[in-house]
Amino acid sequence: MSDNNINIRLAKTSDAPELARLNDLFNGQGSNSPDSVEESLKTNENEIVCVADVGAVDESKLIGYCCGQIVRSMSRSYNSGDITDLFVIEEYRGYGVGRRLLARIENEFQKRGVSHLHISTGKENRAAQTLYRSCGYKETTEFILDKDLPTVE
């Protein structure tokens, strides 16, 4: 496969079904519906979603995506960004797709005034850690904790 066959671009609302499919592969079946993905692409101005596709323009197939959120806070004089997902279908790994998705989303963050990025991955995900380090990301002393909140009705 040639690198020239892979197009890295911003996601469009018409990508929602394919993005939902990729999201299911990455985050588990039923993580989000195509309708919810489409709604987020339409309305979430703080989110950036980049995709990697192969194929003809009218018959493209998404093979990966990277998304992130712009974080604005009164506690900082700068805007930061959280890269929340980076996923490439296994058969397309090793061709630089992840690296190109990261470069594209970094460029989009810069255009929107973001000067600092944060990305996290699992402790055991050595492949992702290697990629992130090779792209200039450094380990921090952060200790990340999570909590699920009950649904408010």
Structure at a glance:
The protein has 153 residues and is of the alpha+beta class.
Verbal overview:
With 153 residues, the protein is of the alpha+beta class. The chain has a single domain, classed as Aminopeptidase (3-Layer(aba) Sandwich), CATH 3.40.630. Helices cover 30% and strands 26% of the residues. It is built from four helices and five strands, in the order βααβββαβα. The protein has helices at residues 16-27, 34-43, 97-111, 126-134; strands at 6-10, 47-54, 61-71, 79-88, 114-119. Strands 1-2-3-4-5 form a five-stranded mixed beta sheet, sandwiched between helices. A hairpin with a 6-residue loop joins strand 2 (47-54) and strand 3 (61-71). Helix 1 packs across helix 2 (34-43). The longest helix is centred in the last third of the chain and has 15 residues, at 97-111. It starts with 5 loop residues before the first strand and ends in a 19-residue tail after the last helix. 24% of the residues are buried. The mean pLDDT is 89.
Topology, element by element:
Layout: E1 6-10, H1 16-27, H2 34-43, E2 47-54, E3 61-71, E4 79-88, H3 97-111, E5 114-119, H4 126-134
Parallel strand pairs: 4-5
Antiparallel strand pairs: 1-2, 2-3, 3-4
